[in-house]
Design brief:
Elements: H1 15-36, E1 41-45, E2 50-54, H2 57-64, E3 70-71, H3 72-80, H4 82-92, H5 96-104, H6 108-126, E4 135-138, H7 139-155, H8 164-185, H9 192-199, H10 202-227, H11 238-246, H12 250-254, H13 256-284, H14 289-303, H15 307-312, H16 314-327, E5 332-338, E6 342-343, E7 349-350, E8 355-359, H17 360-364, H18 380-387, H19 415-432, E9 433-436, E10 447-449, E11 452-454, E12 460-465
Parallel strand pairs: 2-8
Antiparallel strand pairs: 1-2, 3-5, 4-12, 5-8, 6-7, 9-12, 10-11
Helix pairs in contact: 3-4, 4-8, 5-11, 6-7, 6-19, 7-13, 8-10, 8-13, 10-11, 13-16, 13-19, 16-18
Length: 467
């Protein structure tokens, strides 16, 4: 590791200063490393280890590294301290990934009508507009509540997707995990089990969620065992699919509630931020509303509210992808832990046991990859698709230049559901509301917590029901 250049102090003991600087200025330090060592590796200090960051052609190489050389699961564990914040069993046996890939993604067309129904109910409840009056909302908390309902319509169905206690527990996982991660990263590894036991709310959250969900889980188990796969009115939701995947495996059944919370965390922390980032762009630049409206209305008139319609909304797809390109969820991605010494094509050696990531926002802000990259160009990708109708420019498509969803075989398996969900919510907003900021044209700055980027949680957006 000494041969890999460092951003921040690197001498013994002084590296702790670098770790403190990274905690407060992660994005700036990653960008500095990207500009100095573009296409190469550099490292930054954590309090307990070094993190190696790569960019350029090395991103594609990370995506191709076999699982016996680098571990995606251990990378997630290191990034989120997930053994403690999400539970050891769920990280050691992440069977939900196959459920998302094989069941949810393949049933998107079936799930979409339920999603659209919940979007309408959630907006009516959360944004009660009156006539021509503007209604002011705290955008991030309200969008988080709406996303939680919409997502859980597909996860657990009615009535639980509207249950206030259930939603509070599901949404609360976001704060619990990030606070826990930050706290655990500040203490030595041998103290983490103690800190996790006494200071993290995971056990209490699991118990409260279990009180709500175990009766319905037990009833579904009973019907599944008595009637098999074809019982009448069998739910087609994520809870049913993970229950089927866990059936007959005691370890999975014991952690079913934990797994439901994990799936909620993964879905909610990215989607609630993603829709709020996009909403801020729309409210700051309302000139985009009319072209989006026109496309959405014409497409729905021809196709109805269907998966086919969403696929044909190129401008909406571009708007959402451009928002994610600029804002993202994190300034790094493709997180891995090296299991063996890894050699990149430029000769760089990354020793076994190293935390390895790619520079996400720095890559997606490179003018050589995206002309005028700092500018929010809502229809950047739809214009490229008109010139060359390539899957490369679609929102859900990853590439070495667009890695917010990761890239390679471990790219986010739920991104196809997330894209449809976010596009559906934004389409509903565009069709049914006018939106703006009180200070028109001024988008609030993002807020950073270490490597994580969030839309300003204090910002308010004005909504008015469209005439």
């Amino acid at each position: 590791l000494n041969k890999i250049p460092t951003i921040g102090p690197s001498a013994p003991l002084l590296s702790y200063i670098g770790a403190y600087q990274f905690l407060h200025n992660a994005n700036e330090m990653i960008r500095e490393g990207y500009m100095k060592y573009k296409g190469r590796a550099f490292k930054v200090a954590f309090f307990d280890r070094w993190m190696v960051v790569v960019s350029g052609h090395l991103i594609e190489e990370i995506g191709r590294l076999p699982d016996d050389q680098v571990s995606f699961q251990r990378g997630a564990q290191e990034l989120l301290q997930s053994k403690w914040t999400l539970g050891r069993e769920t990280t050691e046996d992440p069977y939900h990934i196959e459920v998302i890939k094989e069941k949810l993604t393949r049933n998107l067309a079936t799930v979409l009508p339920q999603v659209m129904d919940e979007i309408q109910h959630a907006f009516d409840d959360q944004i009660p507009t009156k006539g021509d009056e503007w209604t002011e909302i705290h955008a991030l908390p309200v969008m988080t509540k709406i996303v939680a309902r919409v997502v859980n319509r597909a996860f657990v169905g009615v009535p639980f997707c509207r249950d206030p206690t259930y939603l509070r527990l599901a949404s609360g996982m976001i704060g619990d995990v990030y606070k826990g991660r930050t706290l655990l990263n500040l203490v030595p590894f041998f103290l983490r089990p103690i800190v996790a036991h006494f200071w993290l709310p995971t056990n209490l959250t699991n118990q409260m969620m279990s009180d709500i969900m175990m009766p319905v889980i037990e009833e579904r188990q009973r019907k599944l065992r008595e009637l098999g796969d074809d019982w009448t009115d069998k739910p087609a939701d994520v809870l049913m699919w993970i229950l089927e995947e866990a059936e007959g495996k005691d370890s999975r059944l014991r952690t079913l509630i934990q797994m439901l919370l994990v799936i909620n965390f993964v879905a909610l922390h990215s989607s609630s931020g993603g829709i709020t980032h996009a909403l801020y762009h729309l409210a700051a630049q309302p000139e985009y509303i009319e072209p989006l409206r026109e496309e959405i209305e014409l497409t729905i008139a021809a196709e109805g509210w269907t998966k086919t319609a969403l696929n044909k909304m190129w401008k909406l797809d571009s708007f959402m992808k451009e928002s994610q390109r600029i804002n993202g969820h994190n300034c790094t991605s493709l997180t891995r832990v090296t299991l063996k010494d890894v050699y990149f094509s430029d000769g760089t050696l990354v020793p076994a046991g190293t935390l390895l990531v790619a520079a996400t926002l720095a890559t997606q802000s490179d003018d050589n990859l995206y002309p005028n990259a700092a500018e929010f160009d809502a229809f950047r990708f739809s214009k490229l698709r008109e010139e060359n109708d390539s899957i490369k420019y679609q929102y859900a498509t990853t590439s070495p230049e667009f890695i917010t969803f990761g890239h390679g075989k471990h790219a986010c398996p739920g991104r196809f559901f997330a894209v449809d969900e976010l596009k559906s919510i934004m389409a509903y907003i565009v069709l049914n509301y006018d939106v703006k900021f009180e200070r028109e044209g001024v988008r609030p700055a993002n807020k950073w917590i270490s490597t994580s980027v969030n839309p300003d949680p204090t910002a308010k957006v004005l909504f008015r029901r469209r005439k």
